[in-house]
Write a structure and sequence with these properties.
Layout lengths: L1 H13 L4 H13 L3 H14 L4 H13 L3 H13 L6 H16 L1
Length: about 100
Amino acid sequence: LSEAEAFAASAVELRPKMATLRDTLAFTQNKAGDPKAAAQTIGVAIELEPDNAQWRVRLAEYLLAGGDRTAASQALSKIEDMRLTVPEDLKFQIDVLRKKLKTT
């Protein structure tokens, strides 16, 4: 896992404006137990591609994993506020996150 994170970080250094690489780095950071770093990293992906609903869902996941329920809820609300196109599989993830926010 640490090797994957190092590779992802290197890729981000080489292509800093490629949001998908930021997503990969955030994923590895979260899996390594650092959801706060993952939220910061995916935040840059959002800056690069603000209309990508997937990055905002991942942000909500990482914020929730890091214990910031309010920010996670706001991240999900932003998707609706911006009227972003959300594929069906992502709608399912949003529903799961909303249920987690209600129960935890």
